[in-house]
Write a structure and sequence with these properties.
single chain, alpha/beta, Rossmann fold, disordered N terminus, binds S-adenosylmethionine, transferase, methyltransferase, tRNA_(Gua-N-7)_MeTrfase_Trmb
């Protein structure tokens, strides 16, 4: 944790949506925005920043592969229009007041790696009393989720841009979260890449400090060796207990929709496993949250 953790600052105030810069053509549906900006200009002047935490935190193993993907005109429009209102750059430089970010005191669940965000939007719509802080580094997905939130009138979703580990470590206070969702994290199947897997003991150490006692960590994967690893490290961690009395995997709960990545795995015949673990309430701890 940095020292900034002790001195919370307010979140970035919402900037007014800006008009198209002079000389810049408006976004044309179906046309990639990649070619509409001059060299050196930011991709989305009012949208998510490229690499918001900069090189400051970069000398570490990352659980994602930075990739440059085409952003559709609709996604670009959402990023420009809605990012100032619902977006959060994960720069690691300030502590977030979640009640201020969402405009209410409702419980907050962090989702790491929402992909294109369809499942996130469905879950937000089905449970408006829960706020979802959805984080990914994937720009088209950020635009897609902003669009889905807008089209479905969802006020309980905020979209984070950057590495969720920096968010957890530098920008959230202890017990700030009511839950964590990690659906189909990158499986990193090659042995030399296993160190990049998100669900590891050190990651759980960090998560345990940010989820209130009683809060749920919900993971799902279609990669069976990773499912076994998840079960092993979650079971071994003293701060978490399996919600299954038999100590095994859970069936997919009704409240979790099928995700895009899951669909691709099922098409290949993969077996999907869910894991739901509860943050332990120690006897000497006062109860927190709901
Ligand atoms: C395999 S995709 C799954 C997407 C979605 N949950 C689904 O099931 O369709 C995993 C996603 O996690 C994101 N991701 C991985 N590590 C991350 C991290 N540390 N912070 C934020 N996003 C991360 C990747 O960018 C990617 O979009």
């Amino acid at each position: 944790m940095s020292d900034s953790h002790n001195a919370p600052e307010a979140t970035r105030p919402a900037a007014p949506a800006s008009a198209e810069p002079a000389g810049q053509p408006a976004h044309v549906p179906g046309v990639s925005v990649r070619h509409t900006r001059a060299k050196g200009e930011p991709r989305f002047p009012d949208g998510p920043r490229a690499d918001p935490a900069g090189s400051h935190f970069e000398r570490r193993i990352r659980s994602f592969q930075p990739r440059r993907s085409r952003v559709t005109a609709g996604q670009a429009d959402a990023l420009q229009r809605l990012w100032p209102k619902w977006g959060l750059d994960i720069d690691g430089q300030r502590v977030i007041d979640l009640a201020e970010l969402f405009g209410n005191d409702n419980p907050v669940v962090l989702e790491i790696g929402f992909g294109m965000g369809e499942a996130t939007a469905q879950m937000a719509s089905a449970d408006p009393g829960t706020n979802i802080l959805a984080v990914d580094v994937h720009t088209p997905g950020q635009g897609n989720l902003l669009n889905l939130a807008d089209q479905n009138g969802l006020s309980n979703v905020r979209v984070g841009n950057g590495d969720a580990i920096i968010l957890l470590r530098e920008m959230l206070t202890p017990d700030a979260l009511d839950g964590l969702r990690v659906y189909f994290p990158d499986p990193w199947p090659k042995k030399r890449h296993h160190k990049r897997r998100l669900i590891q003991p050190e990651f759980l150490d960090l998560v345990a400090t940010r989820i209130r006692p009683g809060g749920i960590v919900h993971c799902a994967t279609d990669w069976e060796p990773y499912a076994e690893q998840m079960l092993e490290v979650l079971t071994a961690h003293p701060e978490f207990e399996n919600t299954r009395s038999d100590g095994g995997f859970s069936p997919r709960p009704d409240f979790r929709p099928l995700t895009r990545f899951e669909g691709q795995g099922l098409d290949k015949g993969h077996v999907v496993n869910d894991l739901l673990f509860r943050r332990v309430q120690h006897h000497n701890q006062p109860p927190t949250g709901a």
